[in-house]
């Protein structure tokens, strides 16, 4: 990896030697314009966008507080490397990972074939936009019950080199270096990031290096080739969850066994993809992407050592056709996606107690499994514009998922070696939109989604796969209302939905820090989401954008009996019933920026019996930034900020259904960071 750094800096040095031009870009306005308000108005009601300037309003170590601005989305973060995202309650019962949604970088899937997604290790400086589609309406991305998060890469029509040094509380240090070249028919962006932090808890050191390449070539007037590559290396120690007593009295401590074992995770992950787009005719557009992802992970835990390797390959193709259907303007999108993942999963005895406090020591091999998992998806959407007021979108997706297990460890009598599959599913989607006038519109939709169990959920406490787990399936019913007011100065959105889910996958604790996946019968997910965004300008020198977003939900178990105990009628575990985000983005003149955000969350049930809850909380973040010219084509920016400004004590993530063993309290809670400060200094040279 060090060779990549050397090459990067050599290229940067060559660029610095170029002739300077006075192309200062201080007048760039980061805040949303009326044009972007119009884009949000035209977008479907269950789709939300975040721009890069929003993503960087925190200290660049996490996207959680920014992503939680979106109604219906709740991201929990127990540490820099311990995150999980749920959308409308789907994925809330995951323990230490994000699943039940699909994650894409441009047109390239980042999710594995079983639905596991890693978002926290993608550096925010490499993302120009985040698009979130809530629920199973994203037919063009195949099967997905929770929704889709699509990341758009950074690639600008500018020539510049930029460097940034960021520092903060708890030994936070981050270095960013970026080179962007746009010349003729080619654009290239190279980015290197190095992030380290000591964390505010014991056993929470974290180190990550990432290398990013994004390039685009216009091969002709009608064809384009894009190349994306990213390599990430990280090692993050794991303090794990705490009991309520430790959360309140000693939140900086690590869980005893994790501290004694010096538990951590480390991995190298690479994602590479090529996307070719071609305008075949004036009304036919094609896109084809081929991609691969590689992950080599090692995780010493108090109860064992997990050694995982994964290699994935895939292909995605879409064809978009503009046509006249019965004299109505229409758009047809057809395509498919194939993904194959080869997993190697083994567990090893961890004899850390015999290693004189030095951490992990490998013992005997406990299990050794390989699994090949693949899916094939096909999808088609037809969008018909019946009039200026009414359009209808019809969609249909299908998925066939299969996997093969090879058990290298067990004897022939209990070996699981064999081929398995899930039934093929058909997933319809209907969305209708009616414009009441040019500033108001209503929409209604019905859609079906599907998600398969992950490898981690399928592993039993004996280290074998539970082949009896059923995929989750659900219908979503939704209505929405959008309106612009006062000449694009105010955008209002309200959505009401009901999702009915069968075979929701939940976790049963079987030992300390160990769980198995089980199906929970049926659950209901009704909810209301709203958003108010304003765009206020005063004599061109002051721009302000206040906003308030929120969601109210009433998720519960319809039918769930586990080990003879009924939880039917109880609130769904791991999800707050109320969530609000409000704040202000402001720009004074051309140089000064101010951002303020508050996230508020109601109490969260942390066990299925609804006898234990995480307390409600609200925390606030703020940041100020100043930009100024330094010399000719060199500009600078300085920012300072504070997270959790009022030092709220809260649980930033929870472990559902934790069980205490040996007379100890159950460890449900990850403590949120106390008040912490950060600042950065950046230089941009435009050539």
Features:
single chain, 687 residues, mainly beta, 22-stranded antiparallel beta barrel, 5-stranded mixed beta sheet, 7 helices, 40 strands, 57% strand, globular, disordered N terminus, TonB-dep_rcpt-like, Beta-barrel_TonB, receptor
Verbal overview:
The chain is built from seven helices and 40 strands. With 687 residues, the protein is mainly beta. Strand 11 and strand 12 form a beta hairpin. The radius of gyration is 25 Å and the shape is globular. The two termini are 28 Å apart.
Class by SSE composition: mainly beta
The shape is globular
Mean pLDDT equals 88
Number of helices: 7
Rounded to the nearest angstrom, the distance between the terminal CA atoms is: 28 Å
Oligomer designation: single chain
Task: Note the beta-strand portion.
Answer: over 45%
Largest sheet: 22 strands, antiparallel, barrel
Helix content: under 10%
Sequence-ordered SSE layout with sheet pairings:
Layout: H1 2-16, H2 34-42, E1 47-51, H3 52-55, H4 64-67, E2 73-79, E3 82-87, E4 102-105, E5 108-109, E6 127-134, E7 147-153, E8 160-168, E9 172-183, E10 186-197, E11 206-218, E12 223-237, H5 244-249, H6 256-261, E13 264-281, E14 284-300, E15 305-325, E16 328-350, E17 362-385, E18 390-407, E19 418-421, E20 425-437, E21 440-451, H7 455-458, E22 472-485, E23 490-502, E24 505-511, E25 514-519, E26 522-534, E27 536-538, E28 542-553, E29 556-559, E30 561-562, E31 565-566, E32 578-588, E33 592-601, E34 604-605, E35 613-614, E36 617-631, E37 634-643, E38 651-654, E39 669-671, E40 676-686
Parallel strand pairs: 4-7
Antiparallel strand pairs: 1-6, 2-3, 4-5, 6-7, 8-9, 8-40, 9-10, 10-11, 11-12, 12-13, 13-14, 14-15, 15-16, 16-17, 17-18, 18-19, 18-20, 20-21, 21-22, 22-23, 23-26, 24-25, 26-28, 26-29, 27-28, 28-32, 30-31, 32-33, 33-36, 34-35, 36-37, 37-40, 38-39
